Amino acid sequence: VQLVESGGGLVQPGGSLRLSCAASGFTFSRYGMSWYRQAPGKERELVAVVTNVGGRGNYAESVKGRFTISRDNDKNTVYLQMNSLKPEDTAVYYCSTYALGSRYWGQGTQVTVSS
C-alpha cells in the first residue's frame, strides 16, 4: 500500500488549497479514505473521512463548511478542498486508510496559513 500526498504550500488567510492523495497497492474503491493533520506540539487529529460507497464525507467540527473531501475511484485519488483557510489550519496533512487489516499513512504534506 502506498499513499502519496501533494498540493500543500503557503497560503494567506482566507485562501484555498486542494490536497491530493494518490493511492496504490490495494483496491481503492473498496475502502474509506481519511485526511488527518498534525500541528506542531499537538496530537494528530482526524479532519475528514469519505466512504467507499457513495463518497459521503464526514468532517471535524473545526473544518465543517470550509473543507470538502472527495474521491475519484477511476484515478485512485482522494482530495481535500480547503477554503477560507485560517492560521490554525497550519499543520502537516496526512492521507490515511485502514485496508487489508492495517492502518496506512502517507508521508504528509505541509500546509502553512500565514500572511
Q: Give the structural class.
A: mainly beta
Helix content: under 10%
Main sheet attributes: strand count, strand direction, barrel closure: 7 strands, mixed
Order of helices and strands: EEEEEEEEEEE
DSSP strand tally: 11
Kindly estimate the percentage of residues that lie in beta strands according to DSSP. over 45%
Report the C-alpha radius of gyration, rounded: 13 Å
On the 0 to 100 scale, the average pLDDT is 96
Which regions contain 5 or more consecutive residues with pLDDT less than 50? none
Spatial separation of the terminal alpha carbons: 37 Å
Overall outline? globular
Number of helices: 0
Q: What does this molecule look like?
A:
The structure is a single chain. This protein has 115 residues and is an all-beta fold. Helix content is 0%, strand content 53%. It is built from no helices and 11 strands. The protein has strands at 2-6, 9-11, 17-24, 33-38, 45-50, 57-59, 67-72, 77-82, 91-99, 102-105, 109-113. The strands form 2 sheets. Strands 2, 4, 5, 6, 9, 10 and 11 form a 7-stranded mixed β-sheet that branches. The protein has a 4-stranded antiparallel β-sheet with strand order 1-3-8-7, with no helix packed on it. A hairpin with a 6-residue loop joins strand 5 (45-50) and strand 6. It is globular, with a radius of gyration of 13 Å. The termini are far apart.
Brief account:
The chain has 115 residues and is mostly beta strands. It contains no helices and eleven strands.
Question: What distinguishing features does this structure have?
Answer:
115 residues, mainly beta, seven-stranded mixed beta sheet, four-stranded antiparallel beta sheet
